[in-house]
Design brief:
- The chain is α+β, with helices and mostly antiparallel strands.
- Helix content is 21%, strand content 27%.
- It has ten helices and 24 strands.
- The protein has helices at 8-21, 24-33, 35-39, 169-175, 210-221, 224-232, 259-275, 343-354, 391-406, 451-460, and strands at residues 44-50, 53-59, 79-86, 94-102, 109-114, 122-129, 132-133, 137-140, 153-158, 181-184, 234-237, 294-298, 302-306, 327-328, 360-364, 382-383, 411-415, 421-427, 434-441, 464-468, 473-479, 483-491, 501-510, 513-520.
- The strands form four sheets. It has a ten-stranded mixed β-sheet with strand order 5-2-1-11-10-9-21-22-23-24.
- Helix 8 (343-354) runs parallel beside helix 9.
- The longest helix is centred in the middle third of the chain and has 17 residues, at 259-275.
- The chain is globular, with a radius of gyration of 23 Å.
- The protein starts with 7 loop residues before the first helix and ends with a strand.
- The relative contact order is 0.11.
- Residues 1-33 have low confidence and may be disordered.
Length: 521
């Protein structure tokens, strides 16, 4: 009696096991099975670039939306994943190679920390399992730390990409730009469903378990435009609240007030974040804790200070209920012990700002830093989930930025979270000169506030020099030895998959002369 024909499922299971053992089975059948598509469904990515290397990421997920991607197709056995880095796109000159183990405990993701490469140049990379090969990614190392070269650096920053509220046309446009790196400021996924005119849908309810968070990341990372932007450049990534729970602070959220219950949820969310991001082992969570802030240096031209604005912050002030949305004002928000970054991260940031500066410093942090009185009329009203709920901590940060400026530093603050484009002069008080310039880069898809709300904020806060919330998009930054430019790029209609993207506003920046300089708007 002849054996029954092999199904796709049996072929794939057998092939994965054979790949781990070096068996010829997978090599013989890879082409017929189209295993590149089957295994590397979430694409490839690189991140955390350094002068001699970077982190390479992929995840083997043949059924990415089933059981957190941990279906019977993968099983529990580790899988050997070969990786290659080349100096050329055709992989004729291999600069580094090796094998990583994709294990079930990390959802068969790999985080390869490549070292020993040349500084300040592009590289190409790919992964192979048996005969199945991933798409090719492009990345680059940073300039050497003492490099005095003055050629411009160009990067994009983005945030807030609610999957249901629009297509990721902004990432299609970003992937086509000549960038050195990308900064993502958080809200990479959304745990909840909200907004209007949905064009696609989440699967399942609000995630609270690891498998559910894995499914949510897999859904977002299945988007081809997001995959293209990841494959094109190295990314620096931090998180905001929606990677875990809306408006959470430290060990509680408005929805989950019990710290023990919330920290279990946070541990699952942090692990899923790590499993899907191109970040090094040192950022791997230990339970509900993970250290993800740090300095990223690009020669003598630029330091990026990447921060974590959620994990350590004080609980919301002034609010008796469970929501952080009502505008409020009270003495508690001014209390000196309140912290946005937590004492340890604040001390680290103060040390970084006190150190001898590079030509430029970019402070990458999650939400609008400038003061924003939002209540209409003569009364004052502030959003307690933003920096206005942590006024003393902002004063301490402004003191550090002022000292940094006095030491020859030039700081640009890049921010996200508020689903609007803003450009602001950062001042210690209304009469003082600017100590830094802030740009908020809109949202990839997430719905923004009304035009009336933006107009009110601009009228009550004259240091907010530009504001617009009717468009989705991201920001481009170009910096050289003397100055540079920030460009807001807007999607024509995020509800259309093939929508165009174009420049909406452009601002000049000058070393030693902080403040918003509008070139065109």
């Amino acid at each position: 009696m002849s054996a029954p024909p092999l199904s796709r499922r049996r072929l794939l299971c057998g092939g994965l096991a054979a790949a781990s053992l070096g068996h010829p089975f997978l090599r013989l059948h890879a082409q017929a099975l189209s295993l590149s598509r089957e295994l590397f469904t979430l694409g490839v990515a690189s991140g955390a670039p350094q002068p001699d290397g970077f982190v390479l990421w992929t995840r083997l997920a043949p059924d990415p939306l089933q059981g957190g991607g941990m279906s019977e197709l993968m099983g529990d056995a580790p899988v050997d994943v070969r990786w290659e880095v080349a100096s050329d796109e055709g992989f004729q000159r291999i600069a580094a190679k090796g094998t990583a183990s994709a294990t079930a405990v990390l959802a068969h993701s790999v985080h390869v920390e490549v070292q020993g490469l040349a500084p300040g140049r592009p590289y190409w990379y790919r992964f192979t399992v048996g005969g199945a090969r991933s798409p090719v990614g492009r990345t680059r190392t940073t300039p050497a730390e003492a490099d005095e070269a003055t050629q411009p650096l160009r990067f994009a920053f983005a945030s807030c990409q609610q999957y249901e509220q629009g297509f990721f046309a902004a990432y299609r446009d970003m992937a086509a730009q000549p960038l050195d790196f990308v900064v993502h400021l958080g809200d990479y996924i959304y745990e909840s469903s909200w907004g209007t005119r949905h064009v696609r849908h989440h699967q399942g309810s609000i995630p609270t378990q690891l498998a559910e968070f894995r499914n949510r990341y897999a859904l977002y990372k299945s988007d081809p435009h997001l995959q293209a932007a990841h494959a094109a450049f190295p990314w620096l990534v931090t998180w905001d609240d929606h990677e875990v729970a809306n408006d959470y602070t430290d060990d509680v959220s408005p929805r989950t007030a019990d710290p023990a219950q919330f920290l279990a949820l946070r541990a699952a969310a942090y692990q899923a974040w790590y499993e899907h991001m191109p970040v090094p082992e040192r950022m791997r969570p230990r339970g509900a804790d993970a250290t993800i802030y740090g300095r990223h240096r690009f020669g003598r031209m630029l330091d990026v200070l990447l921060t974590d604005g959620r994990q350590y912050r004080s609980h919301h002030a002034c609010l008796a209920g469970r929501s952080a949305s009502p505008l409020a004002d009270c003495a508690e928000r001014l209390a000196p012990e309140r912290s946005f970054f937590g004492a340890t991260q604040e001390a680290w940031l103060a040390r970084e700002l006190a150190a001898p500066p590079s030509r430029w410093t970019v402070l990458a942090q999650p939400t609008l830093l400038a003061e924003a009185d939002r209540k209409r009329g003569a009364e004052h009203g502030y959003w307690m989930d933003g920096w206005d709920g942590y006024a003393a901590a902002r004063t301490r940060l402004f003191d550090g930025l002022a000292a940094h400026q006095a030491n020859g530093g030039s700081t640009i603050v890049v921010s996200g979270d508020v689903h609007a484009f803003w450009a602001a002069d950062l001042r210690r008080d209304d009469q003082a000169s600017a100590i830094a310039t802030e740009f908020v880069g809109g949202a990839i898809t997430s719905e923004g506030p009304s035009a009336a709300s933006v107009a009110n904020m601009r009228a009550k806060n004259p240091h907010l020099r530009y504001g617009r919330a009717d468009k989705r998009g991201y920001a481009l930054v170009t910096l050289d030895a003397r100055g540079g430019a920030v460009e807001f790029r807007a999607v024509d209609d995020e509800k259309q998959a093939d929508s165009g993207v174009a420049a909406m506003a452009r601002f000049g920046v000058e070393r030693g002369a902080p403040g918003v300089h509008v070139d065109s708007a």
